[in-house]
Amino acid sequence: MLSRQAIRSIRAAAPARTFARAPAPVRSYAAAAANATQDVKPPVAVYGVDGTYATALYTAAVKTSTLEPTAKALSGLGDLYARDPKLAAILETPTLSDADKGAIVAELQKALGGAANETVKNFLATLAENNRLGVLRGVVDKFAEIISASRGEVELVVTSAQQLDNRTLNRLETAVSKSQYSQGKKLKVRNEVNPEIIGGLVVEIGDRTIDLSVSSKLAKMNKLLTDNL
């Protein structure tokens, strides 16, 4: 999707594309976060540079009443990372020129389509101007944490040796929602595939892990046999 060839093509078509310099220092999302969060309190604290930007974006989205559209756009960026393995490497390139960054931001907005509201557009431009495009993937993940917390969701991660069908995932969601582990919160189900567990499931909800994998049972059996020899 976003490749060096695509960037060069955009630069050739519009060589004058650069970030305009504001007459006064631009108030970045990261710098604004410390003051803005005094008015808007995120439901959960996230840390690191990406966490600072994610918190500031959440604050800006709340203040501009664009929280849901912004969450949709960030989810779209997450999908973009999943579909394009080269994207992270491109954004983390330390030698990107202003024209490169302008081309990348334009391509990201194009990929998001109508989901790229003004809050997201300004945010992407700020990341580019501050040479922070490389933290975008972390921002997407941290923003998802904040949004889940704001919706009262708790993440249910089901790891299996093969991809599970929706019917199985729905049955697991129903079972866990009736247990003490859900704590009455809405579950956000995610299926991860790890062939190394051989079979069975590993279920993670919040800070709890239920390991029902074949690999875990084999490990316990091997330890039992070793201890008895």
From TrEMBL:
Alphabetized InterPro entries for the sequence: ATP_synth_OSCP/delta_N_sf, ATPase_OSCP/d_CS, ATPase_OSCP/dsu
Domain of life of the source: Eukaryota
PROSITE patterns from the UniProt entry: ATPASE_DELTA
One GO cellular component, as annotated: membrane
SUPFAM superfamilies in the record: N-terminal domain of the delta subunit of the F1F0-ATP synthase (SSF47928)
Annotated compartments: Membrane
Gene Ontology MF terms: proton-transporting ATP synthase activity, rotational mechanism
Record-annotated membrane-spanning stretches: none
Keywords associated with the record: ATP synthesis, Hydrogen ion transport, Ion transport, Membrane, Transport
Keyword Coiled coil attached: no
Pfam families in the record: OSCP (PF00213)
Membership in a protein family: Belongs to the ATPase delta chain family.
Name assigned to this protein: ATP synthase subunit 5, mitochondrial
